[in-house]
Amino acid sequence: MDSTFDPVAWSATLLGTFAIAVAVGALRTPGKWAQMVLEIEESPALQLLCGFAELFIGAAIYLINPWDSADLLSMLMKAIGGLMMAEALVVMAISDLYFQTWLKNLAAMRRGWPIATLVIGAALAGAGMLRFV
Questions:
Q1: What is the domain count for the chain?
Q2: Where residue 33 falls among pLDDT bands split at 50, 70, 90?
Q3: For 99-108, which contacts have Cβ atoms below 8 Å and span 24 or more sequence positions?
Q4: Residue 22, domain member (yes or no)
Q5: Distance (Å, whole) CA 54 – CA 91
Q6: What b/e readout covers 83-101, taking b as 16+ CB neighbours within 10 angstroms?
Q7: CA distances from 127 to 8, 12, 35, 73, 91 (A)
Q8: What's the average model confidence in pLDDT over 34-53?
């Protein structure tokens, strides 16, 4: 493997920029996330696909990032990957309850979730990009 490849920097940057793009889309089109969650809740096929996609991406993030107690970003990325895998299993096991909870949260915090996602995404992308310098 190339010694210049930093999996922590790449995974934080990519996940952060993805979160930024998703948040911008949600802020441009209020109600988009609630509609998306409602569509997933109504389709067992989408539930399975979304759960599998999140499990696969979470596993990739978890497995590629080392647990280095001296490196806060690597520990954070490993934890995010683990949480994504856990959430994917919940989605596949009890999606009816899980998506109802999300629909209530999204209705109550129409702009709060996208703004929080934007801030977290910017922090992750920034932390990842700083490692390239």
A1: 1
A2: confident
A3: 99/37, 99/38, 99/40, 99/41, 100/41, 102/37, 103/34, 103/37, 103/38, 103/41, 106/33, 106/34, 106/37, 107/34
A4: yes
A5: 9
A6: ebbeebeebbeebeebbee
A7: 10, 7, 31, 8, 29
A8: 89
For 86, the domain range is: 7-130
CB 19 within 8 A of CB 120: yes
- Tallying the residues shown for the chain, one arrives at 133
* pTM for this predicted structure: 0.87
pLDDT of 108 > 90? The answer is no
Q: What is the overall mean pLDDT for the chain? A: 91
Residue 2 lies in a domain: no
Tokens for 15, please give them. Answer: 């996940």
Q: Does residue 74 lie in a domain region?
A: yes
Specify the pLDDT at position 63.
97
Report residue 82 as tokens.
């683990």
d(CA 105, CA 67): 32
